[in-house]
Predict the structure.
Amino acid sequence: MPVIGLQYRLGVGRCRSYRYLLIPTVRQQACLVGLLGLQCELYNAALEERRGAWRWERRSVSFFDQCRVLTSLRGVRPEVLASGVTVCRGTLRRLDWAFAGFYRRCRAGQRPGYPRFRPRSRWDSLQWEDRNGWRLDEPSRRLHLFGVGGLKVRLHRPLRGIPKAITVRREGRRWWVTIRCVEVPAEPLSPTGRQVGIDLGVRVLVATSDGALITNDRHAQRAAKRLARAQHDLATKQRGSKHRRRAVECVAAAHRRVRNRRADMLHRLSRRLVNDYEVLVHEKLIVSNLVCRPQPRPDGAGGYASNGAAAKTGLNRCIHDAGWGTLLAMITYKAESAGRTVIAVDPRNTSRTCAHCGHVSAGNRRGAVFRCQACGHEAHADTNAAINILRAGRAQQQNAA
Ligand SMILES: [Zn+2]
């Protein structure tokens, strides 16, 4: 999660990001749009420089090389520097990340795409990486951006810690600011003396060892119909037309709605779990492995046999939709701030072991029902797994102590 990555970069205290709605005036909005355009241009120019230097001189250009050149822009393109050098550096940093990702994937033996030139329509954010060029005035609820002015901020919740960096983002017609803070004080919760095992599933999103079953709303699935309609609508529009642009916004809004609803649900759920329990045990999971595509299976006659790809695609979509990784990340950071303990355990056999007698067999489980072949113990399969997970977590805790 970005929170953890940032902690490494800044190397200080507990980090948190806070996101607030911005309410720019018409003039400020025009200013921001202009700034987005210039930064997009800068990104493309910097990409061109890196590409050209390598192609013609076999010379690699670093982030620092490009930052040094920035100041010489003052004579040629003064408007690029009109909002300060910090936001330009933020843009160059993004290009640097794009290249870092590209080289990392190359080294890992994958075949990544080379960083691309970006059209203005796909450039929506500005970042200030240090404390220059902006100032948050909490009492008057204004975010002062150098070259733009004092933007009204809806501070719906108090900011904690020391603000270090910001990102301003356009989403549809709205503008948001994400403020990254360091040295955020912990907010310990009172002890409850309760422990819980958490089993993550597709049909039942979370099953706890106490027997609670929280079903997955499958937000995307419900919204899929509306999305399909919006996408179909988009496909019928002529390229470059005003109607098409409106249809694009419609599709983006549908995606955004799904994303927001899912995040809201996961935030509430993780908050409830962290408030209720002192020790939370979950299965270690590697989502990137779970959602990978199945290997193609050649049938020897030049074709391919069924490898279950279609079924796996369906399951992948469910996994993405359920947002296991996001949920665990939310539980982890909320628990850390609240002084709760989170334990990750090996997921092997948790769903095949009988929580009553310990008998392990694949035949114990049939769909959502768990019935032990040795002792006849019957339970909901996910609840049974959650109890095993809690037990494994306790054992792990005792071994460590
Ligand atoms: Zn049993």
